[in-house]
Amino acid sequence: MSVGPQPAPIWFKSSYSGSGTSECVECADTGHGTLLRDSKRADGGVIPVRGPAWHSFITALRQEEPRR
Questions:
Q1: Residue 20 and residue 55: Cα distance in Å, rounded?
Q2: Which residues form the DUF397 domain (predicted)?
Q3: Maximum Cα–Cα distance for the chain, whole Å?
């Protein structure tokens, strides 16, 4: 079975990052997980994270008390 060309990922930043900052992690949904990259180095490496691991990570973040 061959895999055809994949569509380019649609990258987004957290709404908490603000529009004037470049120091952020960008994410892209793949349907099977999430891709992560450094917004300052968009042409650099990408970290793939499987769906269940990403879900666990986000769930843990939401349970933490916000830091100020």
A1: 28
A2: 11-62
A3: 51
